[in-house]
Amino acid sequence: MKIKFLNKGKFERSKVAPTPLDRILEVVIAVLALITIIFSVYFYYHLPAEIPIHFDLNFEPTSFGPKIIILFVALVMILVVLVLWLSTLFPGWVNLPVKRTPEKEIPQQRILCRLCHVTAIWVVLLFLVIVLGMASSLLGVDYTVWKFPTLFCVIGLIGTITFYSIKIRMV
């Protein structure tokens, strides 16, 4: 009996090498992730015991929780970025909106690699904004300052996924 989700294609390495632009994007992702982690750890030691952990549409805090949540947010960011990075190495993990064929495999993998890198940048930026929003009281700024950057990151994330999904479909 063969287990479907453990087929060879899921764990086959990517057939395309990262381009110089992909390497630059990886460095940008790493730097932004490191900044987010540093901010999270710094804020953890300087924030009060309770911090805002949920915001409404006007970016006003609606619930509060322990400050350890800020470290949990950084951990979730690391996990999401790690999954996106591994998806560039093992493209079979990603459910593409088209059927995979041998003749289209290389161009699809190139686009998929770029999709994962650009998505990771938006994800790290979104988590950075969330961390900064949680630390607004420490920074001395109003919570609503983070409303536009959050919306910008979410629109960028949705737009990136949509753009590259269409691009993969057109291959």
What does this protein structure show overall?
- By secondary structure, the protein is mainly alpha-helical.
- The protein has one domain.
- It has helices at 20-46, 69-89, 105-134, 136-139, 147-170, and strands at 50-55, 61-66.
- The chain has a two-stranded antiparallel ribbon with strand order 1-2.
- The model has no long low-confidence stretch (mean pLDDT 88).
**Radius of gyration in whole Å, from Cα?**
19 Å
By DSSP, the count of extended strands is 2
Our count of domains comes out at 1
The major pleated sheet works out as: 2 strands, antiparallel
What would the average pLDDT be, to the nearest integer?
88
> SSE order, as H and E?
HEEHHHH
Low-confidence stretches: none
Distance between the termini: 35 Å
Q: Decide which structural class fits the backbone.
A: mainly alpha
Q: Give the percentage of residues in beta strands.
A: 5-15%
Number of helix segments?
Answer: 5
In what order do the strands lie side by side in the largest sheet? 1-2
Q: What is the general shape? A: elongated
Helix content: 55-70%
